[in-house]
Design brief:
The chain has about 290 residues and is an alpha/beta fold. The chain has 2 domains: about 140 residues, Quinone Oxidoreductase, Chain A, domain 1, CATH 3.90.180; about 130 residues, NAD(P)-binding Rossmann-like Domain (Rossmann fold, 3-Layer(aba) Sandwich). The protein contains 10 helices and 15 strands. The strands form 5 sheets. A 6-stranded parallel sheet has the order 10-9-8-11-12-13, with helices on one face. Strands 1-2-7 form a 3-stranded antiparallel sheet. α3 packs across α4 and α3 crosses α9. The radius of gyration is 19 Å and the shape is globular.
Length: about 290
């Protein structure tokens, strides 16, 4: 058991361990990501892809335990008990307020970038510069990719380039897309509002991939020829399993890739919620659990 420090994903000090626990000892720093349990027996679980558990993935917040009934409260709890298999190792000297968002935005963007082999010289597009998008920029830049940010907010250009993007495109003007047709190897789409996917698919090179991690509420029309012409791929991605999440953490600790955060008190949660809706956050809120 350990008290939670930031947000829905959790980082804190281990206060008590069971007799069978070998992975942690009292006083260690541990993290809990987007889920706390899974069936452990299905093909996804056995492949270290617990987030796709075919029976039930017990999400850390706004979900249920494996019984399908007991609610999970995530970062709004005062303590959490979790099996060591679903907890992540955090160095004692890590900046805890910046570690918790890695367990969400970090793994959500690291996983597809890794899966599609993004490396030095890759040309990567990031659609949307928010909580997810800004981490995509940082991680892609850290491996040596050339990053282009697409945003409907022209005022974000300065931030995009400060975070590591080489190029910035104001996406409300269709003319800005014309010269980029067929130039990108990969696009990570982090926007959760309705937008034209075909316009972005046209920017991919032959065999390029566009991965959705944003979740718009309305279905998006996709023209078949947007995929057929160039043998392009449109796919999605959801966080990562425990093994890959630990790999991501180790990478970010080694290369000092951390999110931009604003630490808030518990009394500011409602205010932070309203600011999030308005897009007024750079770029993740983190709750200091000592203020609950």
């Amino acid at each position: 058991m350990f008290p939670m420090v930031p947000g829905h994903e959790i980082v804190g000090r281990v206060t008590k361990v069971g007799r069978s626990v070998k992975k942690f000892k009292s006083g260690d720093i541990a993290g809990v990501g987007c889920f706390v349990d899974s069936c452990r027996k299905c093909s996804s679980c056995k492949s270290h892809e617990e987030q796709f558990c075919e029976k039930h993935c017990a999400f850390t917040y706004n979900g249920t335990e494996m019984d399908g009934k007991t609610p999970t409260y995530g970062g709004y709890s005062t303590l959490i008990v979790v099996d060591q298999k679903y907890a992540l190792k955090i160095p004692r000297n890590a900046p805890l307020e910046k570690v918790a968002p890695l367990l969400c935005a970090g793994i959500t963007t690291y996983s597809p970038l890794k899966r599609y082999g993004i490396k030095k010289g890759s040309k990567v597009g990031v659609v949307g510069l928010g909580g997810l998008g800004h981490m995509a920029v940082k991680i892609a830049k850290s491996v040596g990719a050339e990053v282009t940010v697409f945003s409907t907010s022209p005022q974000k250009e300065k931030d995009a380039k400060k975070l590591g993007a080489k190029n910035f495109v104001f996406s409300k003007d269709p003319k800005n897309f014309e010269k980029l047709a067929g130039t990108l190897d990969f696009i990570l789409d982090a926007v959760s509002a309705s937008h034209d996917l075909n316009a972005y698919l046209n920017l991919l090179k032959r065999d390029g991939a566009m991965v959705l991690v944003g979740v718009p509420t309305e279905p998006a029309p996709v023209a078949a020829f947007s995929l057929i012409a160039g043998r392009k791929k449109l796919t999605g991605s959801l966080i990562g399993g425990i093994k890959e999440t630990q790999e991501m953490l180790n990478y970010c600790f080694k290369h000092k890739v951390f999110p931009e955060v604003e630490v808030i008190k518990a009394s500011q949660i409602n205010e932070a919620f309203e600011r999030t809706i308005k897009g007024d956050v750079k770029y993740r809120f983190v709750i200091d659990a000592s203020t609950f």
